Amino acid sequence: VENVRLLDRLSSRKAALGTLYLTATHVIFVENGSETRKETWVLHSQISSIEKQATTATGCPLLIRCKNFQIIQLVIPQERDCHDVYISLIRLARPVKYEELYCFSFNPKLDKEEREQGWKLVNLNEEYNRMGIPNSYWQISDVNRDYGVCDSYPTEVYVPKSATAHIIVGSSKFRSRRRFPALSYYYKDNNASICRSSQPLSGFSARCLEDEQMLQAIRKANPGSDFIYVVDTRPKLNAMANRAAGKGYENEDNYSNIKFQFIGIENIHVMRNSLQKMLEVCELKSPSMSDFLWGLENSGWLKHIKAIMDAGIFIAKAVAEEGVSVLVHCSDGWDRTAQVCSVASLLLDPYYRTMKGFMVLIEKDWVSFGHKFNHRYGNLDGDPKEISPVIDQFIECVWQLMEQFPCAFEFNERFLIHIQHHVYSCQFGNFLCNSQKERRELKIQERTYSLWAHLWKNRADYLNPLYRSDHSQTQGTLRPQMAPCNFLYKFWSGMYNRFEKGLHPRQSVTDYLMAVKEESQQLEEELEVLGERLANLQKSQLTDIKVESKQQDRSKQLGLSASNNSLANTPQDYSNDLKSFPSRSPSQGDEEDSALILTQDNLKSSDPDLSANSDQESGVEDLSCRSPSGGGCLPSEDSGKDSDEAVFLA
Amino acid sequence: MLRSSQPLTGPNRKRCREDEVLLGTVLDEGERGFIIDTRSAQAAKQARMTGGGTEPKSSYPRWRRLHRPLERGRLLQESFIKLVEACNDASVNMDRWLSRLESCRWLSHVKAALSTACLAAQCMDREEASVLVHGAEGTDTTLLVTALAQVILDPSCRTLVGFQGLLEREWIQAGHPFHLRCSRSAYSHARLKQEAPLFLLFLDCVWQLSRQFPFSLEFSERLLLTLFDNAYASAYGTFLCNNEKERCLCKVKENTHSLWAWLNEPEEKMKYLNPLYSHNSLVIWPSIEPQSIQLWQGLFFRWIRSSQYLDEAWAEIQQLVEGN
């Protein structure tokens, strides 16, 4: 469709005129005329809702809201075209078959072996080995090898040594969805563990010997403690209500040596509504501070984030400080349980704070344990009541932690944002379907590509320049303050206002520091090389010859491509070397070089599906007025009421 | 940009030729100017009853008057006290924290101040017009606006030395009554009439700018905290008294040491520099959307929570940059 206008939410003056294209997988808007030929690409999978608004003199507005919080406002000149686009998008955004998804047509031009290698990047067996399993307390069980015991669990589960197949099967019959207690994380320092399951089918008085034995087995697997915690992450009322439906929670009287604990995290419906309310606040036009804060509080979003975090902290403390194992469950053990186990693991184990470790964590606690990606994130058209921002909340918890502990994570905010983006994008096969069983049936690994390989390839974009594996913040357990710490939870505008460039600092500190770090490393290497050459020359006693500097080459290297493979596999260690590094003398033409680091061109912006933001000004927003009449207008003189012309009107 | 106090129009709409001529000479042929009055239109009108007022359009034809009410005095002090109480209140739940924060109104004041300063800057930079800023006395919100506008517009005010010069000029010499305003801070129960945290509000706004433009200010948060401390209690004479006249009478220059002298000593100075600084010759236009304005944790939670992890991060940044 031609002559479509793409409006900028913050400044109506920035409306762009162009052509709208609909393909099998994307909506594409191409701006007219400009030399940059700016394009905006949106995957159909990302579309959350489409709203047709009232026709105005300028055309028919169409508002597309995306799951990654992008909002596209289009104005289509002809009502008929607008309607056609609307109907088409509705259908395209609600696929009925997996084959309609982008991942089945996406072609990154890799051969079959590379595709396979990509899928092998994250290996859970290796991960459990890294934890120290199998050992005398824990073993791998193949009781679920054909998904015969639990179809939402993986084929390989890790259970206590004393949990026989009989016990496992018996326990699974007493658990909702047959999700029996299984190992999530083993803390080798003191043998405490985090196990996860779903709620027991205890009703008011039902018992199951095997289930009780299962919990005992978990306790016995930790000789350092004579009890285990059982943490129910639901609000007490909800859990009690479940009893009437024949489910419920563990009775301390029936299960020997458990200490039962409720940590109330609300359910998926509450969270869905919470996000909805928060997004409404984000969509307010020029809200006052008051509107914003009230709206944010009203949504309850940060309160929920804190609840998840507090649960994770409780569990991490129980394991690390008390040396007590914890069994976590919610209702079905695939939402809140996943969130809480992964937060706890992240706090406990620095490995999960590395890039690779984080990928492993998600594979383990979310993918392998059957988090219902399809239902929760709407890969296919389904029940809207199943949709909920569960993994988004986990990802935000990680971000909140990154803000509190800026040196503790190997990866940066962009890594988190891109992962969230791809949970919804269906461009890769990792987050499809509802279980490992379904993914294997669809042969996902043979027909799609792995996100992890893609991210790993671009890992230079995702590094945190402040991370050092030997930094105190990266050692051992992270201990966030629990109270008073309300103020520590910030609104994540990098995620929820991601596409509103006007709201964010123009210059990325992360990118700048990464560039500085890279350059320092290159210079160090060069120094080494020159040092060797000098040593060699001195040996051959040719003292007359001057050492040539490689200044010309260096300025090309400062183009800062991600081709420096020394950043590849291990976190960098820059602590001591930098101090001894001599500063460059002015005679070597430094000035232009340092300028290179700071220019926009060298800053990475590898956002998928987005066109580059070409505004060169250092400032943040175009301050010309946003009045409906558009154009430059002078702020008005006062009258009885405030008129809305100037931008800086309160 | 000019600053003044309110014209003494009074209930009978007095005129003053000299004042009109003065403002007339500021503008070039055909040029227009803006008067930014930091009181609401209502308050400005009411001021006439007590001898004050506004510039009537007829007498100042080439000046357009805009009202941007900014809080000051008792209400600003209350806002500050409430905020500090809220921050110190360990019993506040997450459910209630944001509304509690909102009820203090402090962040709204920050937003309003930034907004008005940006307006002044916009008039000068975009409309290329002269600006006159005044409130009632010209010693509080007026200085907040003019000083902040200069940080936004002028890169030389963003250097360590330039910023100190700005403070000296726009706050100290301009006669902000520090002695009256910065007497007891937020904990005093004697709600002093003249106490008001305008200077802190200014520092908060500057901190917001440093967050939005991490490369553009030569000084770090540490400087802002030090200035905050010294405005209330200082070993130096820089912030003493209420104006130049009093400082002369008290012989401040002869009897005390200057804060600037100490801050600029080579070893001391290092502590206040921003390792990310890189001269930015452009105007820095901040976002005043609520998402962009944050609570200044470094100040309001300074004694409540450890800044260890953030300090470590800055140390890391310092090392990376210096090492390079």
UniProtKB/TrEMBL annotation, chain A:
CDD domains per UniProt: PTP-MTMR7
Recorded family membership: Belongs to the protein-tyrosine phosphatase family. Non-receptor class myotubularin subfamily.
Ranges where the Myotubularin phosphatase domain occurs: 118-496
Domain spans labelled Tyrosine specific protein phosphatases: 299-343
Membrane topology: Peripheral membrane protein
PROSITE patterns associated with the record: PPASE_MYOTUBULARIN, TYR_PHOSPHATASE_1, TYR_PHOSPHATASE_2
InterPro entries: MTMR7_PTP, Myotubularin, Myotubularin-like_Pase_dom, PH-GRAM_MTMR6-9, PH-like_dom_sf, Prot-tyrosine_phosphatase-like, Tyr_Pase_AS, Tyr_Pase_cat
Organism: Heliornis fulica
UniProt protein name: MTMR7 protein
From TrEMBL, chain B:
Pfam families: Myotub-related
GO biological process entries: negative regulation of autophagy; phosphatidylinositol dephosphorylation
Boundaries of every Myotubularin phosphatase domain copy: 1-300
GO molecular function: protein phosphatase binding
Domain of life: Eukaryota
Annotated Gene Ontology cellular component terms: cytoplasm
Entry's family note: Belongs to the protein-tyrosine phosphatase family. Non-receptor class myotubularin subfamily.
Protein name: MTMR9 protein
Source organism of the structure: Heliornis fulica
Gene field: Mtmr9_0
